[in-house]
Design brief:
The chain is an alpha/beta fold. Helix content is about 25%, strand content about 15%. Strands 7-8-9-6-5-4-3-2-1-10-11-12 form a 12-stranded mixed β-sheet. Helix 1 packs parallel to helix 2. The longest helix is centred in the N-terminal third of the chain and has 13 residues.
């Protein structure tokens, strides 16, 4: 069992396979010409599996693969196949561009739920956000997942003045499609130009939806980061991840392993523990893991206060989102 000093048991591991991505979303990647981590400094397939097994032996029940874009890694299929043999729930977050070619691998590994990052339903705005003309490919792949009875959750980062006017369009999508839309409050990371006036809050999102729809709350499952809701008559549902205005730290069970093998005990932690170097030096890994999680702060990495309006994003010590893995 892996626990922190506040009694929170951690049984959910997020593994970033790469900091590379075929998109260039401004809120995730600091600039277009980005220096990706050299392959030699990334965890290799056998190292990922070795570390994952250590976590599973300590009670981890769920592993989520992230990036960058995890499916652009050349050996992603090999890694997914091996992790699929572990006694855990294996899931993935992806931008959806490579679903069609990777679908047999995903199904064979037992992946039954996939999160797709999609911030707009407008092709022109999609190109502006991602700097890539791949909107229709992503939408086609989402339909492919639904046809194969794979649960689809859509991660939509809501940014005031950019896509908050599409909230109702996303809700309309759930009327005849069994997708869950996950509206995510815009969060500050290194290089993403976060300011409080871009944040569209939990209350604002709910108020927007309730203008046209009847909204009913759904009972939260243990460790849920999202507040879930349903609309009578809709096949799908929606949820809100309110990291900034109503954080869920008290029930957090998540650990993050970056693509270069660093363990972060919180998305906003200012420190990290180098597991990959220790592994390559044949050092004991478990004591490092336990020490890292034990040192976890009570809330938001100890860096973010509860009043986001006064937050100075430049004062936060952290990586960019793409190098953390979300």
């Amino acid at each position: 069992m892996i626990a922190d000093s506040f009694g929170r048991v951690h049984d959910y591991l997020r593994i970033s396979l790469t900091d590379n991505c075929n998109f260039r979303c401004f809120y995730c990647m600091p600039e277009e010409d980005y220096d990706f981590t050299p392959a030699s400094r990334l965890m290799q397939p056998d190292e990922i599996l070795t570390l994952a097994k250590i976590f599973v032996e300590q009670g981890v029940k769920k592993i989520r693969l992230t990036g960058g874009e995890p499916l652009v890694r050349k050996d992603a299929a090999e890694i997914i196949a091996e992790l699929g043999k572990l006694p855990v729930e294996l899931v993935i977050t992806t931008n959806g561009t490579r679903i069609a070619e990777m679908l047999p691998t995903l199904i064979a590994a037992g992946i039954k739920s996939i999160n797709i990052s999609l911030d707009t339903l407008q092709p022109e705005k999609f190109f502006m956000i991602t700097r890539r003309d791949l909107f229709h490919q992503v939408r086609s792949n989402i339909e492919l997942l639904l046809q194969n009875k794979i649960t689809v959750k859509i991660n939509m980062v809501v940014m005031k003045g950019l896509n908050d006017n599409e909230i109702k369009d996303f809700i309309e999508w759930t009327k005849h499609n069994p997708v869950q839309i996950r509206f995510i409050e815009f969060m500050p990371f290194s290089g993403n130009k976060w300011t409080s006036n871009k944040l569209f809050s939990l209350d604002e999102i709910l108020a927007t939806v309730e203008e046209d729809f009847t909204v009913l709350p759904v009972k939260a499952a243990p460790h849920d980061t999202a507040k879930s809701f349903m609309i009578p008559g809709h096949e799908g549902s929606f949820a809100i991840i309110s990291t900034m205005t109503a954080p869920f730290c008290s029930t957090c069970n998540r650990m993050r392993l970056t693509a270069d093998g660093k363990l972060k005990n919180c998305l906003f932690s200012d420190g990290e523990t180098d597991l990959l170097t220790a592994l390559r030096n044949k050092e004991e890994i478990l004591p490092l893991i336990k020490a890292s999680i034990w040192s976890k702060k009570k809330e938001l990495g100890g860096q973010l206060g509860k009043h986001f309006e006064t937050l100075d994003a430049d004062s936060i010590v952290n990586r960019s989102m793409i190098t953390i893995g979300g």
